[in-house]
C-alpha cells in the first residue's frame, strides 16, 4: 500500500531511434560514402571499384533477366540434391556412431579429422567419378555437408536424456518407434544445427565446383563475369549470393523451429 | 570380455577403425584388379602408395609445402593481430559491440570464399589473393572469441586488480588478457582452420601456390595415382595441423 502514494517521475520518452541502430546506420553510410569516394577518386582502377550506381544498375539488370533465374535454379537443384544425399547419409552414419560407443571410438576420429580438410581438393576425383556435368557438383556438395551433419547427429544422439530412452523402453517401443518418437525429437536441436552448417558448406562446395568447371549455375556466372571483367555484375552477383545463402540458412533455422527451441 | 568392456578399451576400437580402413583399401585393390572398378577412374591403391615417393621427390613437395605454410602463416598472423585488436575494441566500446557483433557472426557463416574472383581482380593471380582469402575467412572467429574471452573474465579477478589499484592498461595486461587467453586461442585455432582450408582451396582454384596447385597440376596431367597421393598428402598435413593446434589448445586450457 505504501507504494500507492509514492510519486514517480514520468517515464523518459523513448528515443526516436535507439543508439545501436544509429551506429549501424552510421557504419553502413560511412562504408557506402567511402566506397563512392574511392570509386570517384581514381586511386584505384574504376573498374575494380565501380560506383554504387553502376552496381545498383547491374543488380537491377541481373534480377530482371530470366537467364539469372535459370542458373539460380540449376544451382539450387544441385545444392538441394547434395543436401538430400549428404544429409540422409550423414544422419544414418551419425545415428550409428551415436548409438554405439565402440563404433564411435573406432570411426568418429576419422570423421572428426577429415571434416575440416578442404573438400575442394576432391573435385578432380569427383570429375573422374561423376563427369563434368551437375553430378560432380552434387557430389562436392554432398561430401561437404556429410561431415557436419554426421558429427552433429552423433553428438546429439549421445546427449539424449537417458530418462527419455528408459521411458520409451518401458513402453516397449520398437526400434522404429524409438527412432521416431524418442531419438529424432530429442535430437532436433543438434540436427537442425548440423543441417544449417551442412547447408552452408554444401552451397560453398557446389558453387566452388561450378566456378572451377561448369557451363551453368551461379558459380559459372560469377567466373564468367570475372573473365569478361564485368565488375558491377560480379559485385551484384556476390550481393545476391550472400543474401540467398544467409536467407536459406535463416529459413532452415526457422522451419526447424530453432528459435522456439532456444526460447524453451 | 563384455561388449561394454570392449567399447571402453582403447585398443579394440583403434584396431577396428584401422582394420576397416586397411580392409577397404585391400577391397578396392582387388575390385580394380578383377575389373569391377575401372582403373582409368580409380587407380590401384598400391600405385598410389608408390606414387608418394615420386610426388615427394619429383614435384618439389618441400618447396610447395613451404609456400602453403608461409601463406597460411602470414594469414594466421594477420587474423591474430587484426582479430584480437578488433575484439579488444568491441569489448571496450560496448555500443559498437552491440551494433556489429551479429554482423561479425553473420560474416563467419557467409560463403566468403566465393569472393575469390573479386580478390583475383584486386590482388592479381598472386600469393596475396590466397593470403587475403585466408585472412577474410579466418577473421570472424578470432574477433568473436576475443570478445567472449574478455567478457567472460571472472569478476573476482577484476576486483582483485582494482583493489590493488592497477591502472586500466595494467588491469588489461595483468588480469583481463591472461584470463581471456585460452578462449582467444580457441578463436585463433578456429580461424587458422578456416584459413588453411581457404588457402589450400584457393591455391587449387586459381592454380597458384603450393599444395593446392600440386593437386590441380597432377589432375590436369591425368596422373591419377599422383593426384590421389597428393590429396592424401594434403589430408595428412591438415590432420597433423589440427592435432597440433588441438594439443596447444588443451595445454592452454585452465584446469577446472
Structural features, described:
The complex is a heterodimer of chains A (264) and B (256). Chain A is an all-alpha fold and 264 residues long. Chain A has one domain: Orthogonal Bundle (MetI-like fold), CATH 1.10.3720.10. Chain A is built from 12 helices and no strands. In chain A, helix 10 packs antiparallel against helix 11. Chain A is flat. The mean pLDDT of chain A is 86. With 256 residues, chain B is mainly α. Chain B has 2 domains: 40 residues, no CATH class; 200 residues, MetI-like (MetI-like fold, Orthogonal Bundle), CATH 1.10.3720. Helices cover 82% and strands 0% of the residues of chain B. Chain B contains 11 helices and no strands. In chain B, helix 3 packs across helix 11 and helix 8 packs across helix 9. Chain B is globular and about 80 Å long. The two termini of chain B are 34 Å apart. The interface between A and B is large, with 52 and 55 residues.
Q: Name the CATH superfamily classification of the largest domain in chain B.
A: MetI-like
Radius of gyration of chain A: 25 Å
Average pLDDT, all residues of chain A: 86
**Proportion of residues in helical segments of chain B:** over 70%
The main β sheet of chain B shows up as: none
Q: Compute the separation of the termini of chain A in Å.
A: 36 Å
Helix-strand category of chain B: mainly alpha
Please give the CATH class of chain A: Mainly Alpha
Summarize the structure.
The complex is a heterodimer of chains A (264) and B (256). Chain A has 264 residues and is mostly helical.
Keywords:
heterodimer; A: 264 residues; mainly alpha; MetI-like fold; 12 helices; 77% helix; 0% strand; B: 256 residues; 2 domains; 11 helices; 82% helix
List the helices and strands and how they pair.
The complex is a heterodimer of chains A (264) and B (256).
Chain A: H1 19-41, H2 52-63, H3 66-99, H4 101-114, H5 123-130, H6 134-158, H7 162-170, H8 175-186, H9 188-212, H10 218-227, H11 231-255, H12 258-263
Helix pairs in contact in A: 2-11, 3-4, 3-6, 3-9, 4-6, 5-6, 6-9, 7-8, 9-10, 9-11, 10-11
Chain B: H1 3-8, H2 11-33, H3 45-58, H4 61-92, H5 94-109, H6 116-123, H7 127-151, H8 155-163, H9 168-206, H10 211-220, H11 224-252
Helix pairs in contact in B: 3-11, 4-5, 4-7, 4-9, 5-7, 6-7, 7-9, 8-9, 9-10, 9-11, 10-11
